[in-house]
Prior knowledge:
By secondary structure, the chain is an alpha+beta fold. It folds into three domains: 3-55, Roll (Structural Genomics Hypothetical 15.5 Kd Protein In mrcA-pckA Intergenic Region, Chain A), CATH 3.10.290.10; 59-123 and 216-230, Pseudouridine synthase I, catalytic domain, N-terminal subdomain (Alpha-Beta Plaits); 129-205, Alpha-L RNA-binding motif (Alpha-Beta Plaits), CATH 3.30.70. It is built from six helices and 15 strands. The protein has helices at residues 3-8, 15-23, 115-122, 143-150, 185-191, 224-228; strands at 27-29, 32-33, 47-49, 52-55, 62-67, 96-98, 106-112, 130-136, 153-154, 159-160, 165-170, 173-178, 197-205, 208-209, 219-221. The strands form three sheets. Strands 5, 6, 7, 8, 11, 12, 13, 14 and 15 form a nine-stranded mixed β-sheet that branches. A four-stranded antiparallel β-sheet has the order 2-1-3-4, with no helix packed on it. Strands 9-10 form a two-stranded antiparallel ribbon. A hairpin with a 2-residue loop joins β11 and β12. The longest helix has 9 residues, at 15-23. It starts with a helix and ends with a helix. Bound molecules: uracil. Uracil binds at residues 101-102, 105, 184-187, 200. Residues 62-190 form the Pseudouridine synthase RsuA/RluA-like domain. Pfam families: PseudoU_synth_2. Keywords: Isomerase, RNA-binding. One of its GO terms (biological process) is pseudouridine synthesis.
Amino acid sequence: MRLDRFLSNFERFNRQQVRLALIAGRVQVDGSVVRDPLHAVSEFSEVRLDQALLQAGYPARYLMLHKPPGCVSATQDPQHRTVLDLLEVPDKHQLHIAGRLDFNTTGLMILTNDGQWSRRLTQPATKLPKVYLVETEQVIEPHYIETFAKGIYFAFEDLTTLPAHLDILGPRLARLSIVEGRYHQVKRMFGHFQNKVLTLHRERMGALMLDDSLQPGQYRSLSAEEIGLV
Ligand code: URA
């Protein structure tokens, strides 16, 4: 159905009000502002006016997956298995990944069909801490702590990384908390010291912790409380 017709079905809006609301950017479909009156909406669409929910759409899904190594953080890949291949849930192709991980990175991955919610997890302005357990080839020296806290210059993007917190847990083991999600960020930060990352595991995204009872490849729905933490 056309978005303007959908909105006109609500008794409180006449056609003029619908037109003005659309022009003013007050209407969101699946988390994005839509001004086009012809935009198609279905029973799967989440429709909001001024953030107020007009239609919840298809049941929202929020999954926590323990990503195994050797699997692509994408919904489709011609060569490798993807995280979606691990899921046995209806309509899994409506899900998207909130914060990708590299092919061999393991740990916490969130999949959802709620774009507005996942944006809060991933948009840079949120500065959500992402916590990784990192194993490296060379010894992690104490001076890394200060360098990571000051930020590291990434020439390709011409930017300096935001302050990151490093806890050294062993000669080649550390826990790193970063508030951005730059391309290969953790590997490049250790790469600054020519120290290769051997294994990388995401333990936490903000208040969402990987459930210890999930084995690699396993997943579960988030609880209402966990959804509310974001
Ligand atoms: N940083 C990386 O280098 N790789 C990841 O998968 C996540 C963060």
